[in-house]
Design goal:
This protein is an alpha/beta fold and 505 residues long. The protein contains 17 helices and 16 strands. The chain folds into three domains: 43 residues; 212 residues, 3-Layer(aba) Sandwich (Glycerol-3-phosphate (1)-acyltransferase), CATH 3.40.1130; 124 residues, no CATH class. Helix content is 45%, strand content 11%. A seven-stranded mixed sheet has the order 1-7-6-2-5-3-4, sandwiched between helices. The chain has a three-stranded antiparallel sheet with strand order 8-9-10, with no helix packed on it. Helix 2 packs across helix 8, helix 9 packs across helix 12 and helix 13 packs across helix 16.
Length: 505
């Protein structure tokens, strides 16, 4: 807390803990067991109360309605201004906005399941904008009711953001706090909320993906509350199921990409990198990002994955669960021992691991590959192939102003990848955007045009001579990583690729 202070931290934080420490020393240590127990219970209660006050959010209907209207007008006007449209017609152009914020997937299934139980949405996490964009898109374009959000406490650092987040049902999660009391308080909040039928949303990865990869592991803390809540509902003999819905966000460019990849490289490279500051929480940077999104014709795609029960079994629109062979099953049977429904925390921890694995699987199967993802992956793979004598850090330190990507080799890689991805799509192992199905030259041009167009240091672009170059191999690596967890590089058949040589840029 001292190393990474936030504006939103309580002003009396140090005084509270000093007072708690003093009470512990003076009234608990070296006291009789009964006296010490009473004091410790009082201290525990005060700490839990403090944490609960910090975590629990509120929902104001008037604020929600205002935010919905404001965001619609704001996004629509910004879109029309950026596109050079007639501002007098902003009230009739909702369909234009839907071209930028695209919701695909199991929308009807979620809508149906919300009438039959409690829905917990678990998205991938790439940007601080995720919460706002998901909430707005699900409300405006999917027509879904409001969710209770688990939002990072850092989002409350900005005054305007904090005002709305405090009134839109978001509960606050402080990733700096790792102590058991805080974590149990947070889990209790989530558990009780789900038990009481509140549709919830939290990021199972815990924080933004620093590498740019899809999550390959999820944190099990909050996820365990989903399983526990389902068992608690069954113990009350209530006929209500909890449904888990993976959601995958696909950006052509991520607001904080340069900061995130620097943090990732610092973590894995240690002394080779210095700590960098996140400069992308300001209102100005967010507005600039959204302007770029609309003015360059880019879009953000939200893919709603196949719904599951708390065991990770797929469910239909009626909420019926099916095993991997398509046989109907009953969730309550998982919580029975010798015919009796009992709480078994060790068993439920295994169920939570199973659920986490199923969520990761769905992330990869419901992910929509964009042109920018594929082009970035192919370009960085070519860069690696032409510099096999260098490790990752050596490649990232190469002078970008001396290299250009050979379009012949790049197209060959892209063509091979498309063949592989089409087979994966046919096997329901991935989803592809329309650009992947189009002409190869159009795909390359579209990917280059959209890739990282927000950044000062563009990861891939055409220079004045028409050569394909990069301003930052680090940022290119970030976007490449979106496809890295599929291990497609193992299937590329390499032709004779010359070592990358200095060219005139």
């Amino acid at each position: 807390m001292k190393e990474e202070p936030w504006k939103v931290d309580p002003p009396n934080e140090r005084q509270f803990w000093k007072k708690t420490q003093k009470r512990l020393v003076n009234r608990s240590l070296d006291k009789a067991d009964d006296e010490a127990e009473q004091v410790n219970q009082e201290l525990l209660s005060s700490i839990v109360y403090r944490y609960a006050e910090e975590i629990v959010g509120t929902f104001k209907k008037k604020t929600f309605l205002f935010a919905r209207r404001f965001l619609y007008l704001f996004f629509t006007r910004l879109l029309n201004t950026a596109a050079g449209r007639n501002l007098k017609r902003i009230y009739s152009r909702k369909h234009r906005l839907s071209e930028r914020l695209i919701v695909e997937g199991e929308v009807e299934a979620i809508r149906s399941l919300m009438k039959k139980g409690t829905v917990v949405v678990v998205p991938t996490h790439f940007s601080n904008l995720d919460s706002i964009l998901i909430g707005y898109a699900l409300d405006a374009f999917a027509g879904l009711p409001s969710f209770s959000y688990g939002a990072g406490l850092n989002l409350y650092n900005t005054g305007y953001t904090a005002y709305f987040m405090n009134r839109l049902g978001a509960y606050r999660v402080d990733r700096r706090k790792k102590n058991a009391i805080y974590l149990e308080t947070l889990k209790a909040m989530s558990n009780l909320s789900i038990q009481r039928g509140v549709n919830s949303l939290f990021f199972p990865g815990g924080t933004r993906s620093r590498s740019g990869e899809l999550e390959t592991k999820v944190k099990l803390g909050l996820l365990s509350t989903v399983v526990e809540a389902q068992r608690a509902v069954l113990e009350k003999e209530e006929d209500q199921k909890v449904f888990v819905v993976p959601l995958v966000l696909s950006y052509h460019f991520v607001l904080e990409a340069q900061y995130l990849i620097e943090q990732h490289l610092q973590k894995i490279g240690k002394e080779q990198y210095i700590r960098v500051k996140d400069k992308f929480n300001s209102t100005r940077s967010i507005l600039k990002f959204i302007w770029k999104l609309f003015s360059t014709g880019n879009s953000i795609t939200i893919s709603i994955g196949k719904p599951m029960d708390v065991m990770g079994n797929l469910v239909d629109e009626e909420g019926n669960s099916f095993d991997q062979y398509g046989n109907p099953i009953q969730v309550k049977d998982y919580f029975h021992t010798n015919g009796t429904l009992v709480a078994d925390l060790q068993r439920e921890s295994e169920y939570t691991k199973m659920l986490g694995e199923r969520i990761v699987e769905r992330f990869h199967k419901d992910n929509i590959v964009l042109s920018s993802h594929l082009v970035a992956f192919a370009a960085f793979q070519l860069l690696k192939r032409q510099n096999t004598h260098l490790d990752l850090y050596g490649i990232l330190r190469l002078p970008t102003d001396e290299y250009a990507f050979d379009p012949v080799f790049l197209k060959d890689i892209l063509q091979q990848l498309i063949v592989i991805l089409l087979k994966m799509e046919a096997a329901d192992e991935i989803k592809l955007s329309s650009a992947i199905h189009g002409d190869l030259d159009d795909l390359l041009n579209d990917g280059v045009k959209r890739l990282g167009s927000f950044h000062v240091l563009n990861p891939l672009k055409r220079n004045k001579k028409g050569l394909l170059v990069s301003d930052s191999f680090k940022v290119l690596y970030f976007y490449h990583n979106r496809m890295a967890t599929y291990h497609l590089d193992r299937q590329i058949v390499w032709k004779k690729v010359k070592a990358m040589a200095v060219v005139e840029i």
